[in-house]
Amino acid sequence: MSLITRRTRVAAAAMATAAMLALAGCSSDDSGDEETEPTESDAPSEEEPKDDAPEAGGAFDGLEADEIGDLALAALEGADSLRLAATVQDAGEEMVMDLFLSREGDCAGSISAASQGSFEIIKLGDEAWVMPDTTFWQTAIGATDPVVLSQVDGYYLYGATNEPPMDSMVESCNLDTFLGSMTGNSHGLTRGEETEVDGTPVLTLHSDDSTLLVASEGEPYPLRIESNDPADPSVIDFSAFDEPVPTDRPGADEVISVADLQSGAFLS
Cα separation of 35 and 93, whole Å? Predict the structure, then answer.
């Protein structure tokens, strides 16, 4: 399997899981941080399929598929910011995320899990805001009191990024964190058809269980990664390369501080 396809899916799932565990820590002292360890499946197999001979003409003229995969990985690693929209599987749990991420550590978007609900997250500079939905308050944070749920509904939790639980949560909402596990070279890719992703021409690269779609005009960014495994139907889209993270901040009347949440001072 291509390193870029395998590790992107693992990194996306780990990022979403870490953020959810950090937010769940709002109501307890237990640490939810876990590291995703490489598995035997991450190691290249002893026998990899050989790439077809380089094709003459067309996009990436004369390059083999693995070389194109390496170009895509280098382009991704060179981005200062991007948008990540993904549906991935983690231990049988479907997780959906739509996040703008930057190397400065700013982010904005949403993360959801099928059994736990969802939340919106904004991180700008040393401030962070998180708005869980009712399901997340109930299942992940453990809030069951109808009075409490009615008071927090539609509000953002607000806190400094150097204080818990925001400190551990925003570590996952960072482009450097996401890209940190994606060094290496591609292997086992074969060239496929030329097509489009949202109107942008792309070249399709196939591995044993994934498909990588690489922009064939401009920078060779990976625009889509799709799993071919019915048991792991993941799709990851990249866009908005080097565009700024949205900077809209919630108003003061839309927030509850983490301190007020933990003390109960927000209850009217």
Answer: 17
